[in-house]
Specification:
With 342 residues, the protein is of the alpha+beta class. It has 2 domains: 89 residues; 228 residues, BirA Bifunctional Protein, domain 2. The strands form 2 sheets. It has a 7-stranded mixed beta sheet, with helices on both faces. A 3-stranded antiparallel beta sheet has the order 2-4-3. Strand 3 and strand 4 form a beta hairpin. The radius of gyration is 44 Å and the shape is rod-shaped. It binds phenylalanine. The site of phenylalanine has 10 residues, from strand 9 and strand 10.
Length: 342
């Protein structure tokens, strides 16, 4: 029996040598320590050993069994260690590799400018109301006191969808919509897109953006218009920017004005931007016409108001020195990506 134990030990060692995965190790374990394995067989042979030698023989077998299982578990530890390391090295991330750059979208410069104007006006106590871009002739013209034969109503200037429906030509269409359903006091701004049937040139486009502002309450006067406008321009352009008001005509205001600021490019010296006048036109404005208030069931004896309408592209052009209005609509990333601002 001693002989058998010695050769079994040798055979076990030589079977163990080439093993290099835990799975192979498991089969060696089954082979030697399994129920039908050689160690178990030796146990069965014990009964044929003479009684006086049996305890000693039993000890040999037990020692062998113990030795085999200890060797196996030491080897198992070793293999698991190696396997884990190789798994980890496969999963290794090279953090020195530069990341892939993602181009994130950002707000269009028109939206940014609009947001900036909205912020300033909210700071002055106005709130925002949006109006429809497709609207009726009534809100775009009639409620605003445009005579039926007013040239602005002409097909050549306005995009009609049907005889009574059109693309709004200005954001003033929100004035009557808000006033007929909300009693004064009203301090409203309304940003949005407007459309006119014009030639597309460096200075004009069929689609552009405006912000309407109007304030209706008792005793609203020209002084309120001037001071609110100046407070806005001080914030948007620069504090104390010189302004100029010229008489003008819009059917829905009386008196009507055009608002100019001193040219921010030449400081009033005269340049290409201001066509050598030293001034830049920035908004149409005026005191809301009593007829418009009446159309909205607001008593013009009791209430008065001012309104202005300001283009968005124009202030943006002035502020950022852009020389062609068409570039706003072209979505050229080289242009758009210059305005990293929000
Ligand atoms: N709606 C006018 C325009 O588009 C601007 C304006 C608004 C004028 C409000 C006076 C009062 O030209």
């Amino acid at each position: 029996m001693q002989q058998e134990i010695v050769s079994l030990r040798q055979q076990f060692q030589s079977d163990l040598k080439p093993v290099n995965t835990s799975a192979d190790l498991e089969s060696v374990k089954v082979k030697y320590l399994g129920k039908k394995g050689p160690v178990q067989n030796l146990m069965k042979l014990l009964k044929d050993v003479p009684a006086e030698q049996r305890p000693e023989a039993g000890k040999w077998i037990n020692d062998l069994k113990e030795e085999i299982s200890e060797t196996l578990s030491a080897k198992l530890h070793q293999l698991i260690n190696v396997e884990e390391k190789s798994q980890l090295s496969k999963e290794k991330i090279d953090i020195s590799l530069p990341g892939r750059r993602h181009f994130s979208g950002r707000k269009h410069i028109v939206t940014q400018t609009m947001d900036e104007i909205i912020d300033i006006m909210i700071g002055l106590g106005f709130s925002v109301q949006y109006g429809p871009e497709i609207d009726s002739e009534y809100y775009n013209f009639e409620a605003l006191n445009f005579a039926p034969d007013h040239p602005a109503r002409d097909m050549q200037d306005t995009f009609y969808i049907s005889p009574q429906t059109l693309l709004r030509t200005h954001t003033s269409n929100v004035q009557a919509r808000v006033m007929e359903t909300n009693p004064p006091p009203l301090r409203i701004i309304s940003p949005g897109t407007a459309y006119r049937n014009e030639d597309i040139t460096a200075r004009s486009h069929v689609m552009f953006h405006q912000i309407e502002a109007f304030y209706v309450d008792e005793n609203v006067s020209f002084a309120d218009l001037f001071s609110t406008m100046q407070a806005f321009l001080d914030k948007f352009f620069e504090p104390g920017i010189p302004t100029r008001y010229r008489p003008s005509y819009f059917p829905f205001v009386e008196p009507g004005l055009e608002v100019d600021i001193r040219c921010i490019s030449c400081n009033g010296q005269g340049c290409m931007l201001c066509k050598h006048t030293g001034w830049l036109e920035i908004a149409g404005a005026g005191m809301i016409h009593p007829e418009v208030l009446k159309n909205c069931n607001i008593d013009p004896e009791k209430f008065s108001g001012f309104a202005w309408g300001m283009g968005i592209e124009r202030p943006a052009i002035l502020k950022y020195g852009i020389n062609d209005i068409r570039i706003f609509m072209e979505n050229d990333v080289r242009f758009l990506s210059q305005f990293h601002k929000f």
